[in-house]
Amino acid sequence: MKICILRVGGTNCDLETKRSLDSFEDVESEVVRINQLDDDKNLLEYEGLVIPGGFSYGDHIRAGAVFANKIISDLGEEIKKFAENGGIILGICNGFQVLIETGLLPGFHGISRRSKAALAINESAKYECRWIHVKPENRGSCIFTRGIEKDNLFMPVAHNEGRFILQKEEEEKLLKRLDENDQIVFRYSDEEGNSAEKKYPENPNGSTYDIAGICDPSGKIFGLMPHPERAFYGLQLPDWTSRKEVPKHADGKLIFDSMVDYLKRNFR
Fold first, then answer.
1. Whose CA, among 2, 23, 136, 194, lies 20 to 30 Å from 259?
2. Any bridge partners for residue 214, and if so which?
3. What's the pLDDT score for residue 170?
4. Active-site residue identified among 101, 161, 215, 227
């Protein structure tokens, strides 16, 4: 099973993501520069695509906007074929921003520049880098979280533009659509798993309905603001030095577990 980790100038979480994926048997991940897909690589050779975190193209215009525009103009048809062939897509932080900007998320109109959602500047108006809790909300459609049984996951965020918002005049209708389609995957919560109710810092950016991650209607395209690759090993936990016992793995691994399990069941 081959997974493409797509990077451009400003991407900075590609190797952390590769390390996480390469810990699984039968998974071969490869960091690929976007221009390589024009030259000697073919997206259809892969079963999975990950757009990792970072500050693609310096986050000029808006976070993820330039990267998204390049994907639409250079890879639009390949992405469509990739999805039609059953390929899965994960966007982490900047990758989530890219998926929103391409319209692949929420996925109401396919790949386009007409997304009904955005990831806006944090309400705190500052870069938020902290460990947060998220509550799994998906009822089974998202293939990246089907194996998760925990009620509360602990992972870090690191972003300036992570406030999930919907088109204002259609906000209520779109939120209802996301819920009915089972597209809401993670919501920010407190340590006990109670919804953050937009309280800071439990909700670090002021996201609508505390949304931290969504999937498309098929459940095969998923984006989230927290970094699971930075919460893969127990030694990455912020309090590992004060723990009597440090777990081998942290909560972020659960997302990769579900991802790899799906690939094994469908492509092995």
1. 194
2. 184, 223
3. 93
4. 227
Amino acid at 259: M
Q: Write down the catalytic residue from 93, 128, 133, 137.
A: 93
d(CA 242, CA 233): 16
> Rounded to an integer, what is the distance from CA 14 to the centroid of its chain?
13
Active site residue 93: yes
Residue 119 bridge partners (DSSP): 164
- pTM (2 d.p.): 0.96
What are the pLDDT digits (tens) for 5-23? 999 999 999 999 999 999 9
| Residue whose C-alpha is closest to residue 90's, from 23, 145, 159, 171 | 145
| 39, pLDDT greater than 80 | no
Domain ranges of the chain: 2-267
How far the first Cα of the chain sits from its last, in Å, is 7
228: confidence class by pLDDT, cuts 50, 70, 90: very high
Q: What class does CATH assign to 2-267? A: alpha beta
